[in-house]
Amino acid sequence: MNARREFFKVAGLAGGAVAAAAVSRVALAALPEPVLQSSANTMAPLVPDTGRPYNPVVTLNGWTLPWRMRQGVKEFHLVAEPVVREMAPGFKAHLWGYNGQSPGPTIEVVEGDRVRIFVTNRLPEHTSVHWHGQRLPNGMDGVSGLTQPSIQPGKTFVYEFEARRPGTFMYHPHADEMTQMAMGMMGLWITHPKAPHPWIAEVQHDFCFLLNAYDIDPGSYTPKIMTMLDFNLWSWNSRVFPGIDSLNVRQHDKVRIRVGNLTMTNHPIHLHGHEFQVTGTDGGPTPPGTRWSEVTTDVAVGQMRQIEFVADEPGDWAFHCHKSHHTMNAMGHNVPTLIGVDHRGLAKQISQLIPDYMVMGERGMADMGEMEMPIPDNTAPMMTGQGPFGGVEMGGMFSVLKVRKDQPHGNYQDPGWYQHPPGSVAYEWTGALAPATRSQSGGKAAMGANHMPAAEIEVQVRKPLPKKAGSHGEH
Ligand SMILES: [Cu+2]
To answer: What pTM value is reported for the model?
Structure first.
């Protein structure tokens, strides 16, 4: 007996109720089932089985949201909700996101697709979704109060528009933004071209991730939402190194990487071993005549950038934000610079009072990566990660591009560490060291010796300590 007849029997209904029952079934069928994902692994690309074909992207430590086609419309269902995100092995954060993850799943569509997105709010406060960078009717722009009422907890709203231009886009709330973005609510949107496009290359690997940042005290789980600049976790798709998967590609393949920035500062994204071109910006693909080669590109706040290169150099190539504080995890930001300060005597005295006391920093901060320093539960080490030659001493926005001649196409498995050809690795000099000789040149044209100061001047600088809360700055 089918469910519908069962329903009639139980409800004791007949003839006249059929219309009402049919309506409710249609209403129920109108809402696609939300798909949830709680794993922080990089999921295989979602090859489209309905709608127009395209080459799907790979979301680093993320996934693509499945859809259903309904009368020619591509339907998605986003659920805004609290989530637990593993930001690195051993470190979980209590964030807000979509469909079980922060960031939310990547949405992939094709230029010209009609898209309908159901957004259900399971947060404790109202929200909305802004489709960052899209051409759409004003009322679909998702700015709560301005273009729509906000979505109250428990309610579902429907957004519908045509994906008018190809490119890399983002989505995020436009309601209590400071809180909701600090809590991790954001996602990527990729619009593929509907036909071969003269400015959009065919690539064999198409990666994407969002730059995001959190301020989570060591040992705690929830971001401090009032932080504006002094974040302590700089992440890619809410993961920090060594929790960010490597980008594994086949040698001589063309690679595209799409990056969106939803942090509060810019990030100069740097690739080792290759030059790339910026082939797409917020406005979509760039005309080829405007492109030049770079090894670093700055991604400003709220921007999207696409880079492309041929991965022709085999190896394990660092790929990271070039702000060195962004390749570290949570640390005490008030640690003074102690390089050159010998505190051996001091440490001995303090250790008589506090047996576990350790001094760090007088030879640089590399100690942090080496020493087995006890850290609070649920905390990512400040700089860590083991490579084949030792500690990588990195954290935050850092990953590795792995280029291999035998990486199978369509295979994103980590191939392990690079096997260097003999004689191609930097090595220790074990011969005699010649004594240093001082250069005899006093400088010539621009700055002759007679312009030099008479005596050497040694400058000692110490940065002022941050102001205590409640104290007033002097002007
Ligand atoms: Cu950065």
So the answer is: 0.81
**CA dist., res. 122 & res. 237, Å (int):** 21
Ion ligand 1 — residues with CB under 5 Å?
267, 321, 323, 326
The whole-number pLDDT of residue 131 equals 98
Q: Sign of the C-alpha dihedral, residues 198, 199, 200, 201?
A: positive
**CA 43-46-47 angle, 5° bins:** 145
Q: Is the peptide bond before 173 cis (omega within 30 degrees of 0)?
A: no
Mean pLDDT (the chain, rounded): 84
Distance 353 CA to ligand 1 centre (A): 39
Q: How far is the CA of 266 from the centre of ligand 1 (A)?
A: 6
Contacts 24+ apart (CB under 8 A), 38-41: 38/83, 38/84, 38/100, 38/101, 40/85, 40/86, 40/101, 40/239, 40/243, 41/245
CA of 321 to the centre of ligand 1 (A): 5
pLDDT for 475 equals 43
Spatial separation of the C-alpha atoms in residues 377 and 163, rounded to whole Å: 45
Q: Are 113 and 51 in contact (CB under 8 A)?
A: yes
Q: Ligand 1 centroid to 210 CA: how many Å?
A: 12
pLDDT of the residue at 369: 52
For residue range 286-299, what is the model confidence (pLDDT) as tens digits? 999 999 999 999 99
SS3 content of the chain, % helix, strand, coil (to 5): 10, 30, 55
For residue 228, give both structure tokens.
């504006």
CA atoms within 13 A on the CB side of 449: 4
Residue ranges of the chain with per-residue pLDDT less than 50: 1-24, 332-336, 357, 371-373, 471, 473-475
Whether the CB-CB separation of 28 and 39 falls below 8 Å is answered with no
Q: For residue 298, how far is its CA from the centre of ligand 1 (angstroms)?
A: 9
Quick one: tokens of 1? 């007996």
The helix (H) or strand (E) run that includes residue 167 is strand 167-172
Enter the DSSP assignment of 214. E
Burial of 174 (0-12, 13-18, 19+ CB in 10 A): buried
Distance from residue 215's CA to the centre of ligand 1 (Å): 14
CA of 248 to the centre of ligand 1 (A): 22
Taking the centre of ligand 1 as the mean of its atom positions, its distance from the CA of residue 246, in whole angstroms, is: 18
Centroid of ligand 1 to alpha carbon of 268 (angstroms): 6
Q: 297 CA to middle of ligand 1, Å? A: 11
Q: What is the CA radius of gyration of the chain?
A: 27
> Which H/E stretch holds residue 70?
strand 68-70
Q: Is the C-alpha dihedral spanning 64, 69, 72, 76 positive or negative? A: negative
Q: Check: CB of residue 129 under 8 Å from CB of residue 97.
A: no
